[in-house]
Amino acid sequence: MAVRVVTDQVSVETAVVSRRGIAGTIARGLTANRKAMAGLVLFGLFLVVAILAPVIAPYDPHALQFGQMVQPSGAHLLGTTGTGQDIFSQLVFGTRESLLIALAAGLGATVISVVVGVSAAYMGGLWDHILNLFTDVFLVLPTLPLMIIVGTYLNNRGLLVLVAVIVITGWSYGARQLRSQALSLRNREFLEAARARGERSLYIIVFEVLPNMTSLIVAIFFGAALYAVLAAAGLQFIGLGDPNSLSWGTMLYWAQANGALLAGSPVWVLAPGFCIAALGAAFALINYAFDEISNPALRPVRRRK
User: Fold this and answer.
1) pLDDT in tens, 209-233
2) Domains of the chain by range and CATH?
3) Measured between alpha carbons, how far apart are the two ends of the chain, in Å?
4) Residue pLDDT, tens place only, 97-118
């Protein structure tokens, strides 16, 4: 009788989860996770700033109409640069490009990770060996020197080139994780049933395998976005980005080139550095939350009241 009650309870829970769907399950997991909520609030704040930049910024970020190295005041909340531009306005408008680089590079790296990792695990055989070798090569390559070499020898140092360099160097780790997860799903009963129905491999991967890896894919995306934030800031700081663009990395580049710390303007360095750290922390917190959602072993043990 007890076994029947437990079985009925499990059936009811399974039905509730299936009715809720994957999106509902993830949303419930995020709202119940403090790390996820803190990360989402931070990310939402930067997103609002990026959208409302013309409204929030008091001046044109490119205007050379103020004194050089003016200290923070009511007229200039963070002071001015060495060329007379308002630092706060640059910081606000720089949120757009920095956020765009993070999301675009994170999405590109995730797409390549999914294609390579899941395809290698599902197809197996020679394809698995080739794609796995391809992934291992990019895993062992030193990332920072590779980015510097690629960025130096490319004539065009625009936004697309910067995103492409980050994607090329940032997809392999996620591909390895997805391959391991897909290998554990390859011989499950629901996939065998799909093969027995005569479904094509592409259909099985898209509609059967990937929905069961949603939380891991999202976690890989935020991990790649975190990597993109730090990599883009590093490349732009050493001058491998477009110095005429407006982002937090280029703000650091010009601050270093004008000797902001020695000239008594530490805010010019600290403000974009703090924003880079805050955005990276937002992606990291959301990533940790998705790790806990996808892996119950990582969830903290809660005491019963």
Assistant:
1) 888 888 888 889 988 998 999 888 8
2) 23-58+98-245+275-297 (1.10.3720)
3) 29
4) 999 999 999 999 999 999 998 8
